């Protein structure tokens, strides 16, 4: 029986059809998918913090409204993804508890601090830009609910990237101090943004199986290269330099060559020792625990009204 | 205390004249909250003019395991399709 199910699963994947919630899937596929979706959901939720930091200090009402809408989108993205994880049998409360306890990870990028308002712009431009590179191919991921969530998310990320770039263009037209802020923020975020694509292909243990299952469509290095090639002309148009002396066009490869990424730093930040890891998780934990009474009160209210409806 | 709100499936009518279409799910303590959360979660950019929420537990679904036998009555009746019938090209409006 299992082999017939396995054959049906393999054929569905091979025919570029989507796997749907009640289909039989191999345990490894379910585990990989839950891990990837949960990690992605956690990243969206934790990702609200670096920018949320600036909502109360936005430089104008216009920027404040934009930033609020953006952070609200991140919450929405997290919720689409938790819902997708639930279709695989994951328990939503358990996922949050895994995040808080450090049993599941989130993108290392959110462990860096946002020091100036230029960071809000650079996050939109580079961090959301890198996220788009990663996520557009995931709209064709083999797991239906995940692919559908990614379609919604990608549509909204486009607003995120454009508002960031526009913010930076505005600052670049301002004072020298503002231009320096943009350059300084670009210098800090460039390398962490390149790390968002994950370890090099040679060291990526999950890539081969994920590609075979069509969970992933491109390798980490392919996507990273694509992002570098996209970012160079954007940086030029903006009038900032990217902090990499080895970055140059290679006419033979028809791609940009770029310098070595500091994978020691990446491992340090992923394993919990980045500048903000402890703070990010502590804030998420406090929000979860301090919200417990609200969740309980809403349940009690719903239960009471359900009882009253039965009686009348 | 573990206190998980029930799961709701969300259906949105994109505009007048279209069916409600399933867009995803969410958790809420009751139907009223589910509709509000659905508005905030699934219609932040004018995606809908009407929302339905249904308790996920109330949905009865066909089983994917018995997919082939379950849909067999539909597969073997090709005469239900207009292309089953040969009509000469010189017959208009058919």
TrEMBL record, chain A:
Pfam families: PaaA_PaaC (PF05138). Gene3D superfamilies: 1.20.1260.10. It comes from the Bacteria. This is 1,2-phenylacetyl-CoA epoxidase subunit A. It comes from Fodinicola feengrottensis.
Automatic annotation (TrEMBL), chain B:
The lineage of its organism: Bacteria, Bacillati, Actinomycetota, Actinomycetes, Mycobacteriales. The gene is paaB. InterPro entries: PaaB, PaaB_sf. This is 1,2-phenylacetyl-CoA epoxidase subunit B. Gene3D superfamilies: Phenylacetic acid degradation B.
